[in-house]
């Protein structure tokens, strides 16, 4: 007997026997629901037999039989009503538990998000892909799917999505392409570090989404609820269905602010800020500019995160501002990193350590932020050093810059496209899905072992475009991605350590050393970051102009 919890009040299981009822009672259950019709299997006890044994144990029992594959809307409603009326916890069973899990899923459609429902059923070992459209439709069978169909559908209109659309259009202008994204505003997120350092104004980092969608590309302004890759379909909120010949998945990454207790309530006040949000980056600069003394903490959560250098960029620019104002000696800088190294590519660490020393910053490794009390100016960290028990410590602060925990978006994590960790599962060279051969992915959401940066998406978009065009023409993959990512580490105002690297930490510099030596701070790299990269982003990458981003071709052997 394997009882699988969906909620604290409901578990489901495969067929039970009369001999199981005592153990069910002892496990704390107070009622059972039978969702399997009598006579479905030769070795199956009847409901009356089960009910009689249940009564002896003081358990309530209800018979709500469902024919396999024929769960009606009324069945789901009746099941939901039974859960409300019966004493809990409740155990529901059928032949395998699938019908019971399906009934619960449909009954919860108007109470929980699709992602929560799919996560609960998936954790219990049940896939609800077959009823996704009904869940999205409030638990009811859709009467009108309203299908639209395109040659290529792109989920996400961030850096990767718009760049991929533009690159495809530049290669084959007659392609019917749709981009799905609910947002009105598109952000140049790499600029937020500069906003937090008092260098850029916030408005320099935003444009209206409509002004950036490439000409001739359809923009569907909606959120995605789920994927049906076996049907070549994307399900939107409201149960609209968009069909595709080929799919590109690039919705970015989820910033999980709620994972740190008390953080959401105090962001933007009490000295707690983050350059990972457009509206908070100006507050970072306000705090830095006004700080005369005290302790400041910069946090970095467990990997993966987008732009792994951003937490320390904030530290360096803040330290530089305090140094220039002559107050650095009065400020205690703490860098609390959940990981065990300052930067993942060792070649750049010596230059960074010089600035750690310059700003007299304390590096606290294996320190993961778990809670914050803004009004009290206190934060708690779990310290998980190797071969040592986890210790929770308290630290006081006057200012704290937080990098939030990050994960794949909910609708990705519970989809058939995800790997066990929740990321879109791709071949790291071609960026094609490992299971569904008409699906590709790029940007922060996929599981290739590269740095999650806009610079990576700039290189990935042409690779995906080349490979989709090759696929349309009946060929094999034409281009490969080498893992390139770039992290311009703003170590002081006017100087940057330009980290450029690929898979395995291989150095992949874009310029000869006499122009930019990436392992040393340079003014040339700062000029690139401040003056060159924004127009390259807006006028190059998002327009399909692949400056310094031509795909590396796959050489046939």
Automatic annotation (TrEMBL):
Name the UniProt record assigns to this protein: Beta-lactamase hydrolase-like protein
Alphabetically ordered keywords of this record: FAD, Flavoprotein, Hydrolase, Oxidoreductase, Quinone, Transit peptide
Q: Which GO terms describe its molecular function?
A: FAD binding; hydrolase activity; quinone binding; sulfide:quinone oxidoreductase activity
Q: Which InterPro entries match?
A: BLH_phosphatase-like (IPR005939), FAD/NAD-bd_sf (IPR036188), FAD/NAD-binding_dom (IPR023753), Prot-tyrosine_phosphatase-like (IPR029021), Sulphide_quinone_reductase (IPR015904)
**EC number per UniProt:** 3.-.-.-
Which Pfam family name is an example for this entry? BLH_phosphatase
Q: Which cofactors does this protein require?
A: FAD
GO BP field: sulfide oxidation, using sulfide:quinone oxidoreductase
List, alphabetically, the NCBIfam families matched: TIGR01244 family sulfur transferase (TIGR01244)
Give start-end of the signal peptide: none
Q: What is the lineage of its organism?
A: Bacteria, Pseudomonadati, Pseudomonadota, Alphaproteobacteria, Rhodobacterales
Q: Which organism is it from?
A: Octadecabacter temperatus
Q: Where are the transmembrane segments?
A: none
């Amino acid at each position: 007997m394997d009882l699988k919890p969906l909620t604290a009040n409901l578990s489901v299981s495969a067929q039970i026997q009369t001999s199981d009822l005592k153990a069910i009672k002892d496990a704390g259950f107070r009622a059972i629901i039978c969702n399997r019709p009598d006579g479905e299997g030769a070795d199956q006890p009847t409901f009356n037999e089960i009910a009689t044994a249940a009564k002896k144990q003081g358990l309530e029992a209800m018979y709500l039989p469902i024919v396999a594959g024929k769960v009606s809307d009324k069945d789901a409603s009746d099941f939901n009503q039974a859960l409300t009326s019966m004493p809990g916890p409740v155990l529901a069973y059928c032949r395998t538990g699938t019908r019971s899990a399906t009934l619960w899923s449909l009954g919860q459609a108007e109470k929980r998000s699709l992602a929560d429902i799919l996560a609960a059923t998936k954790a219990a070992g049940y896939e609800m892909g077959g009823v996704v459209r009904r869940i999205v439709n409030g638990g009811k069978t859709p009467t009108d799917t309203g299908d639209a169909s395109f040659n290529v559908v792109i989920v996400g209109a961030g850096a990767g999505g718009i760049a991929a659309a533009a690159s495809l259009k530049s290669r084959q202008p007659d392609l019917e392409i749709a981009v799905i994204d609910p947002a009105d505003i598109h952000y140049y997120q790499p600029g937020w570090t500069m906003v937090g350092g008092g260098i850029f104004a916030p408005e320099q980092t935003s444009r209206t989404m409509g002004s950036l969608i490439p000409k001739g590309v359809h923009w569907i302004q909606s959120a995605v609820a789920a994927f049906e890759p076996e049907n070549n379909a994307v399900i939107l909120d409201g149960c609209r269905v968009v069909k595709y010949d080929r799919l590109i998945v690039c919705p970015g990454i989820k910033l999980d602010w709620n994972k740190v207790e008390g953080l959401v309530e105090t962001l933007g006040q009490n000295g707690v800020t983050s350059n990972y949000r457009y509206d908070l980056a100006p507050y970072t600069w306000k705090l830095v500019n006004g700080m005369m003394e005290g302790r400041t903490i910069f946090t970095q959560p467990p990997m993966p995160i987008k732009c792994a250098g951003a937490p320390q960029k904030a530290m360096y620019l803040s330290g530089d501002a305090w140094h220039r104002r002559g107050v650095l000696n009065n400020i205690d800088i703490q860098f609390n990193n959940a990981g065990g190294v300052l930067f993942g590519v060792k070649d750049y660490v010596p230059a960074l350590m010089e600035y750690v020393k310059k700003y007299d910053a304390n590096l606290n490794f294996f320190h993961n932020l778990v809670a914050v009390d803004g009004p009290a100016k206190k934060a708690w960290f779990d310290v998980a050093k190797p071969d040592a028990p986890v210790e929770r410590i308290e630290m006081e602060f006057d200012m704290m810059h937080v990098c939030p925990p990050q994960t794949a978006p909910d609708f990705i994590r519970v989809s058939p496209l995800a790997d066990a960790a929740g990321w879109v599962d791709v071949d790291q060279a071609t960026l094609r899905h490992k299971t569904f051969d008409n699906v590709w992915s790029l940007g922060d959401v996929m599981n290739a072992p590269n740095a999650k940066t806009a610079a990576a998406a700039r290189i990935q978009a042409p690779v995906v475009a080349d490979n989709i065009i090759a696929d349309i023409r009946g060929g094999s993959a034409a281009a490969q991605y080498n893992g390139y990512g770039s992290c311009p580490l703003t170590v002081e105002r006017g100087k940057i350590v330009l980290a450029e690297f690929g898979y395995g930490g291989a150095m992949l510099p874009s310029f000869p050393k006499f122009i930019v030596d990436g392992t040393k701070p340079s003014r040339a790299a700062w000029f690139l970051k401040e003056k060159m990269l924004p127009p390259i982003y807006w006028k190059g990458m998002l327009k399909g102009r692949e400056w310094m981003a031509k795909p590396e071709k796959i050489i046939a052997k």
